[in-house]
Amino acid sequence: MKKVITYGTFDLFHEGHYRLLERAKKLGDYLIVGVTTENYDDSRGKLNVQEGLMKRIENVKNSGLADEIIIEEYEGQKINDIQKNKVDIFAIGSDWLGKFDYLREYCEVVYLERTKGVSSTQLRAENNGILKLGVIGYGRIANRFIIESKYVSGVNVEGVYGPNPEALNKFANKHELAFYETDLDSFFDKIDAVYIASPHLTHYEYIKSALNRGKHVLCEKPMVLSEKEATEVYKIASDKKLVLLEAIKTAYAPGFIRLVSVAKSGLIGQIKNVDATFTKLVEGNIRELQAHTAGGSMTELATYPLLAIVKLLGTNFEDVDFYSYMDEEKNIDLFTKINIKFDKAIASAKVGLGVKSEGDLIISGTKGYVFVPSPWWKTEYFEVRYEDFSRNKKHYYKFEGDGLRYELAEFVSMIHKGYYQTYKLMPNDSVAINSVIEKYLKGKNIKKI
């Protein structure tokens, strides 16, 4: 008897799950299905799972395809299960291609073709269903986003839109998407919500087009490049009762959320200064270094440190000035220091594409301070420190993968629950961040070094 084993969360059991089990079943005589526990899903960064373990097991059982159902509880369990059950074939969806090659030491590994573009209409009526998501853009961040989306339950990336059919076809095939479109109206007809990952200068028009077609929008940072544009698109979203969310992954990460709460709790007294840095060295003929695509350190990186500043000190700043090291030939800033004055506090941010610095975050208070080491924007650890170092306390949190799963999970959750704002990044936070970038782009209070 040939035994086959496969694993999954099987949340909101749909046609794609059924077809995968059906294909796995055909590989042998006896199919074992492993269903993940909530704790294991959490430990591996699987977010937004809507159904409990027993309901998911019941769904797999009701498919009639599983001869045996087991529970997957920990990393490395697959090796033990395969050996204990004398399994001949391990089968998994092709979107995990190469991930489980290490199991070839124990049995045959088969990657099953993924069902493209599935979304059960019955499930859409119940439990809010599977959200059909489309992507505008096919660059580096879009590629990373689709990989991260596999860790978020309740959503499926269906297709991609852009101006280049050849590039779109390649992107769609790589990620096994159901479709690609060069016509924006046709693209919107096939989706419920959109993730915008196109060049900065195109965001504003794409956001308006999507909202006016009744689509929820998750847009890469910087969402737009002016305070007026940010205010306008948030108003459109509010009037139409749609979710509009700026994709600043740090804002939705568990560690950063807890960091803000701890810093503002009074443990370090009144916050009087915030210093945040984000730099990376890049070179070549890339978008980030081109003025005509709104390149430069401010537009590319400033969103992150500005996020920390507005979440810790608020949005009512009194004055902003900038010091920049420029690439005069390309007319872009390779390094900028931002100084922000509040009523009773100050802040500074450093961003750079051509200057390297320590990427830490320091929050200074009247009783102590918080230190977050580099890379602070992927908050996994921070320490509350005092004059009496015996009182110091370290905090540790998980930051899974590239972090894009956190923004997508928040986006999907808001849509399913009917929330149009989240405390993690309020519209006024986003507007304030974009207003600082606008001041810089308009040349206000800039001194060159």
UniProtKB/TrEMBL annotation:
Pfam families: CTP_transf_like (PF01467), GFO_IDH_MocA (PF01408). Residues 5-124 form the Cytidyltransferase-like domain. It comes from the Bacteria. Gene3D superfamilies: Dihydrodipicolinate Reductase, domain 2 (3.30.360.10), HUPs (3.40.50.620), NAD(P)-binding Rossmann-like Domain (3.40.50.720). Belongs to the Gfo/Idh/MocA family. It comes from Alkalibacter rhizosphaerae. Keywords: Oxidoreductase. SUPFAM superfamilies: Glyceraldehyde-3-phosphate dehydrogenase-like, C-terminal domain, NAD(P)-binding Rossmann-fold domains, Nucleotidylyl transferase. InterPro entries: Cyt_trans-like (IPR004821), Gfo/Idh/MocA-like_OxRdtase_N (IPR000683), Gfo/Idh/MocA_domain (IPR050984), NAD(P)-bd_dom_sf (IPR036291), Rossmann-like_a/b/a_fold (IPR014729). The keyword NAD does not apply. This is Gfo/Idh/MocA family oxidoreductase. The keyword Cell membrane does not apply. Signal peptide: none annotated. GO terms for molecular function: nucleotide binding; oxidoreductase activity. Residues 132-244 form the Gfo/Idh/MocA-like oxidoreductase N-terminal domain.
